[in-house]
Inverse folding.
C-alpha cells in the first residue's frame, strides 16, 4: 500500500448542508494520492453518512475544532498535513502548491482566500484578510493551513482552546519559519458576513482578536462569540 505524503484533515460538526459538495470537490486530489480524513465531533445530522463514501476514513473525536484537528493529525499517515474547513474549497493542484512550498524551505503556510456570498463587500474583506496575513505572518483556519508533520509536532499541535486556535498556532509556527503565503485562492463561504452583516462581523472579529492579543482567555471569548452568533 502506498503511504500518502499529504493528508487532509477536515473537522466537522453538523455540516451536512455543505459537506458532500466539499468532499466531492476533493476527488481529483484523492485520485492523486491525497489522504482525506473527516473528524466528526458528534454530529447529530447526516454528516457522517454523507462523508463516508467520499473520504479515506471518518474518525470520531470530542467536539472542538482544535481537538478534532489534533485527533485527525494523529490518525493521518502523511508527512504533510493540510487542515480544511467544511465550507471551504481548495484550488486546483493544491497538493502540488503545498509540496513545492514545503520543499522550498517553508515549514508551514496558507492560501489566499476568496469569499463567496451575497455582500458586495466580500471581495474587499478577502483582500484585507490576505494582506493582513501576508504582513503579519498570521493565518486563519479559513485559509487552509498546511505544514510538515515535523513542524506540527515541534509546536505540539493545535492548542486545546475553544477559539483563536488558528491564531495561536500561527504564532507558534512563526518561530520555526515564515509562512508560505500562496497566491492561489481557496474559496470559503461568506455566510457569516451575509447573515450578520459585513461591518458588524468585521468589527466583532477584530474586537475579539484585539482582546486575545491583550490576554483575554479564549474560553471567555468563545462564550461571547457563541452568544452573538
Amino acid at each position: 500500500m502506498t503511504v500518502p505524503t499529504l493528508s487532509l484533515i477536515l473537522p466537522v460538526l453538523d455540516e451536512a448542508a455543505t459537506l458532500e459538495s466539499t468532499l466531492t470537490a476533493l476527488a481529483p486530489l484523492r485520485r492523486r494520492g491525497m489522504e482525506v480524513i473527516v473528524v466528526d465531533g458528534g454530529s447529530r445530522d447526516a454528516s457522517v453518512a454523507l462523508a463516508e463514501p467520499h473520504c479515506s476514513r471518518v474518525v470520531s473525536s470530542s467536539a472542538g475544532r482544535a481537538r478534532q484537528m489534533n485527533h485527525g493529525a494523529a490518525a493521518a499517515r502523511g508527512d504533510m498535513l493540510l487542515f480544511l474547513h467544511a465550507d471551504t474549497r481548495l484550488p486546483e493542484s493544491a497538493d502540488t502548491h503545498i509540496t513545492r512550498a514545503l520543499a522550498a524551505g517553508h515549514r508551514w503556510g496558507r492560501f489566499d482566500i476568496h469569499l463567496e456570498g451575497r455582500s458586495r463587500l466580500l471581495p474587499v474583506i478577502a483582500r484585507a484578510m490576505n494582506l493582513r496575513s501576508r504582513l503579519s505572518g498570521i493565518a486563519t483556519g479559513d485559509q487552509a493551513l498546511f505544514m510538515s508533520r515535523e513542524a506540527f509536532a515541534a509546536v505540539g499541535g493545535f492548542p486545546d482552546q475553544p477559539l483563536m486556535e488558528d491564531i495561536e498556532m500561527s504564532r507558534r509556527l512563526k518561530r520555526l519559519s515564515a509562512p508560505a503565503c500562496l497566491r492561489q485562492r481557496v474559496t470559503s463561504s461568506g455566510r457569516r458576513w451575509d447573515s450578520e452583516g459585513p461591518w458588524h462581523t468585521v468589527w466583532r472579529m477584530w474586537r475579539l482578536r484585539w482582546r486575545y492579543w491583550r490576554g483575554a482567555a479564549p474560553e471567555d471569548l468563545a462564550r461571547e462569540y457563541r452568544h452573538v452568533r
Observations:
- DSSP finds eleven helices and eight strands in the chain.
- The longest helix spans residues 198-213.
